[in-house]
Amino acid sequence: MRKKLGYLIGKIFLDRKNKKTPKGKKVLINDCQKIGNYIFKTPLIKGLGEAGYEVYILGSKYTLEMARENPYIKDVIIDNSYRKKSTDIFRNIKTGFKYRNKFDYYIEMVGSIYLREIILMKLLNPRMIIGMKRKFGKILKMIDVVINPQKHIRENGIEVLKYFNIKEPNLNYDIHLNRDHKYSKLIKRKPLVLYNGTASTKSRSIEENVEKRLIEKLRKISWIDFRKIEREKSILDLCGLISQSDLLLTVDTGTSHIGSGFNIPIIIDRCDEQVYPKSSIVLEKDFNDENIDKYVEDILRSLYEIAI
């Protein structure tokens, strides 16, 4: 009885019987509230923008500053659904009603089965929904074009571009520093090494005693300028500092993806394949490793062999 009732509700609420053909080029991309999730989608955003599409994103106060510098983004719709809490559903409902029937395409890049995203899709009522196949192989009938999840989140966006016949997109992350920032005139006399051990979750952050040992080791390397990343007033200031660095030690968080945007060599504590940094040099090492300082020196010597 419950299964039949659930099926009936789903049929009434989720199925779109009168699908409409997109007439314009207004695109809304979801899941750009976190720094990493936004950066993953910058190749998709650039590909659509260069092809003449009018791109909007669902962002947050954390990604607003970066997105406003992106010339391929028409506007940022703020709903601040950052922590993925159950109360986000009310923000999604508000956004859905406010922008109902405004978009030709809605790109839903969330692969988890969240009721709030489903409701948002329904309320927005775009002409076409392009979405991911959900966990456990679930496919929502209200999604018009289903994209199979790829090995890395960045490649999900590339698959979407293929649907639009944009076959050779630029795969690089796209971070724009179009104005002066705090570190614009930074003068370096030594290789700059940055460290960040804090993520949005405790499980991905470095324990205090491990961090203390690591910092002590790195500060003993006399020929580098070592800095622990502190909270910046501006996200673009943080991007500016990272862009000036020669090596970044970080946990799996937004800093690792910003580093990838500038192709900075990265040593990362641990990371899964779906969100692995895309710099040309990436080394995955336990930050509790006794030889962590040796890895730092080896990478820098290989890059600056003549200067050292």
TrEMBL record:
- The superkingdom of the source organism is Bacteria
User: Keywords for this entry?
Assistant: Transferase
Q: Sorted alphabetically, which InterPro entries does this protein's record hold? A: LPS_LOS_Heptosyltrfase
Q: Which GO terms describe its cellular component?
A: cytosol
The Gene Ontology biological process terms listed for this entry are:
lipopolysaccharide core region biosynthetic process
The terms under GO molecular function for this entry are: ADP-heptose-lipopolysaccharide heptosyltransferase activity
Signal peptide start-end: none
How is this protein named in the record? ADP-heptose:LPS heptosyltransferase
- Organism per entry: Cetobacterium ceti
